[in-house]
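A student in our group prepared the protein record below, which I am reviewing. Thanks in advance; the entry in question is below.
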Amino acid sequence: MTKTLIIGITGATGIIYGVRLLERLKEAGVETHLVISRWGGRTLVHETSHSREEVEALATAVYAPSDMGALIASGSFQAAGMVVVPCSAKTLGAIAHGVGDNLIHRAADVTLKEGRRLVLVVREAPLSGIHLENMLTVSRHGGVVLPPVPAFYQHPKTINDLVDHTVGRVCDQFGFEYPGIERWSGEMSVGIQSQD
């Protein structure tokens, strides 16, 4: 599998998931092609201390969301797939219905049509019937919907522990190693009794 990944960052809350994914992929030597939407840029400066320039420097290549002629807009571009993290409900709907009005939508559409892995880290709650239908549509057409649902069996002590767990699960979708992620061991803590 090629160690090249397309990353889309949209304006949903949870921008830190996208930033952390870029950091870990850079450490792992994965080539990344990044698109940050206009609202993704706004949310980035609202939710983190990172500048857009700092985040873009983590990627191998960066594209403007309006650049429909970009390399990643073509199926001839070879990549393991694409992650939209975080993925807004608007972006989910556009992808589910083949609306390619920006480069994130177009690259996701190309990823699906080429039979490559598309992972959407959808950040929305509560979910309406429309959101659920859009998730089902994406899933039926080969996409993976991976909401950032925290796990607690690893006894997280910081927000970074929670973020790393989700980012590790995203990396798993592409077979990329994520050193340090604590996986379920199958062993329950002492004092917890199993019940039938």
Q: What stands out?
A: Helices lie at 15-27, 38-47, 52-56, 89-96, 103-113, 129-140, 159-172. Strands lie at 4-9, 31-36, 61-63, 81-87, 117-122, 143-145.
